[in-house]
Amino acid sequence: MCHPATALAVLVLLVNDHLLKQTWPGPLTGKLSDVAGLVVAPPLVALLFLRRADLAATVLTGVLFTLVKTTEPGAETASQLWSLVAGPSRVLADPTDLLALPALALTWWIRQKSLRSDLRHWRVLVVVPLAVLAVGATSAAPGPPEADVVRVQGQDIVVTGRWMGGHSSRDGGVTWTAWNGDPLTPGPTAECVPNEPRRCYRLAPGELKVMQSDDAGATWTTAWELPPGRLDLLMRTHEVDTLRSLSLAVQERPRGHVVVVANGRDGVLVRDPGGAWDRLGLDPDGTPSLAATVPYTGAGADIGREIFVALVAGFLVIVLGLTVAAGAYRPGTSRLIIALLAVFGAVLLGQTPWADVVGYPLTLGATALGGLLLVGMFAAAWVEAAGMRVGRPAVWHVLTTAVLVALAVVAPFRAWTSGWPDLYGQAVMIAAGVALFVAAGGLVLVRRNARLRSAERRYLAGSSTSSPT
Predict the structure, then answer these.
(1) CA distance 145 to 268
(2) Of 292, 287, 280, which Cα lies nearest the Cα of 168?
């Protein structure tokens, strides 16, 4: 790690990732990072083994580099792991990067030379931290491609945008090829059909929406938009706070006209000569493609936050159910649990906005405190239920109610992803209403059964003490 050649590779990695790639992006600077990284990585990996393992570290580096650069699962796994270490990162599979593998031979040569050189402490203090910084603080990852500008350039319709470069189409948006012309100025937001001046199109400001006029702009109607609930789901899938149409172009075609709209992260919207609208997503290289289109409905949508809320709701029902069952044997025995529930509710209600309660991330302190309170409530309720000997039937009733409540919370949101109900707020209301109804009914049955068992136990105890003489 402290050999001058390795130190030089560290400096090359830092300068290339944070200066040269931004100034001269291209294959040369990309391969330079791979070569420098393969020189620096094996000694860093060897340090993790905490013993002399130079050969194993070198071979492991080569194997992992090959898997990442030649397989999509390897690249995706590397992206996720690197994002945990260095922030949002994106690693692309590129078999041509294997041209850098001979750098491992240079690493082994450096290793042989370093065995015969003295090791000065100042080198360790300088080179090792710089190496960790160079490997961890890589250049900013390119974001998902976005379509920002669309214009008609002669016979071509050209779309450009951030991280997508430029792509053009000569068949009205059916097929697309790379375009290397001069950068386009901001595109128009309204245009009329050249040979049909009374037919005009414009974008709704700040919305993912296209308007149409058949009287030269005197009146406007909606030509294309998504239902509000589907737009919410699409923004969640894209992980953005807003989606809006940015630019619009109209082109005459032999059988009518086409309209092409740049929709930012969502890609490109195309109206064919027959009047049908199609959304085209963007491939990783920015090419508009129907196969890359992100669906705005379907069971595969992410509802991880709602599932978390469902699990918390089920856990709370377990706590309440055990408390109710224990209270049937000795009223007033669960004051501690009730107090903890009140504090837990105060923690949730103290979060702003209200959306936090239905699944958006809570603050770290509130999450930690809420977790501790849940564990404390469960422990207290379990001790009370065990002390009162509520019995297995009561426990099974509690667990069944908890499962049903969790399903009642999840089901409306899963239905929302499929299109009914359309609005997220409606799914929240349905989930809350059904879950409360199921929880109340289940807890009433738990309390009723526990009281019957308590009365039966008292009757049996009384019968044993009043046996005939």
Answers:
(1) 11
(2) 287
pLDDT in tens, the chain (469 residues): 778 888 888 888 878 776 776 666 667 777 888 888 888 888 888 877 766 678 888 888 888 888 888 887 777 777 767 665 555 566 777 788 888 888 888 888 888 777 655 555 666 667 777 776 666 655 555 668 899 999 999 899 999 998 888 999 999 999 999 998 877 888 899 999 988 999 999 999 999 999 999 999 999 999 999 988 889 888 888 878 889 999 999 999 988 999 999 999 999 999 999 999 999 999 988 899 998 898 887 655 678 778 888 888 888 888 778 777 776 656 555 555 555 555 555 555 444 333 444 444 445 455 555 555 556 566 656 655 665 566 677 778 888 898 999 999 999 998 998 888 888 889 999 999 999 999 999 888 887 877 777 666 666 666 655 555 5
Q: What single string gives the DSSP state of each residue in 209-247?
A: EEEEESSTTSS-EEEEE--HHHHHHHHHHHT-S-----E
Neighbours of 295 (CB within 10 A): 14
CA distance 53 to 217: 74
